[in-house]
Amino acid sequence: MWAEQWSGSPRQARMARIDKSFPFTKFRTILHRLSRAQSSLLIQIRSGHIPLNAQLYKLNCIDTDRCLACADRPGITSTKETVTHFLFDCPAYQNERHYLDRALGRHNRSLEHIMTKEKSIRELLRYIGSTKRLKRTHGDVTPSPQRGQRPINSEDLSPDN
Ligand SMILES: [Zn+2]
C-alpha cells in the first residue's frame, strides 16, 4: 500500500505543510476513480517530481532546465520548465489553457485548490492531455467526458468565445 510507505517519509512532511489532510481524504478518494497513469501523474504534480525539464535537469537527466516549448518564440525570455510554468504560464499552450481557464475560472491558479475537487482535477488532466507534453511518459491522460460535459471542440478554444 503506497499510503503506508508514504507515511513517515520526508516527502510526507513536506506535503503536510501543503495540505494537512493529505493523503487520506478527498484527493485520495478522487485518485481511486482515475486510471493508474492519471493518478500517478497527479501525485507527481503534487510532489513536484514530474518529468518536466526543471526536474529532469536537477536529476542530471538532461542538459537544460529551460522550457523548450516556448524557448524559440520571439520576445520570450527562456524560462525554467517548472510545474507552474507548464500548467499556468507557458505561452506555447495558451490555446489549451484558454479552455482550462474557462472551466476553472481565470483566477483559479491554485494547485492546492484544484487538487481538492474532482471536476477541477479532470479539467487539469484534460489540459495536460491536450498539450501532449507528457504523452511520452504518461500516455494520454485526458479523462473521458463525464455525463453532461461537452467534449472539446474548436469553438471552445476560440479566444473570442
Ligand atoms: Zn514554456
List the helices and strands and how they pair.
Layout lengths: L1 H5 L3 H9 L7 H7 L3 H12 L5 H6 L24 H7 L4 H11 L6 H4 L3 H14 L3 H4 L15 H4 L4
Helix pairs in contact: 7-9
Bound molecules: zinc ion.
Describe the structure.
The protein is 52% helix and 0% strand. It starts with a helix and ends with a helix. It has one domain. The longest helix has 14 residues. Helix 7 packs antiparallel against helix 9. It is an all-alpha fold and 161 residues long. The protein binds zinc ion.
Query: Total domains, how many?
Result: 1
Q: So how many helices?
A: 11
Structural class: mainly alpha
Which assembly state applies to the chains in this document? single chain
Order of helices and strands: HHHHHHHHHHH
Regions with pLDDT < 50 over 5+ consecutive residues?
A: none
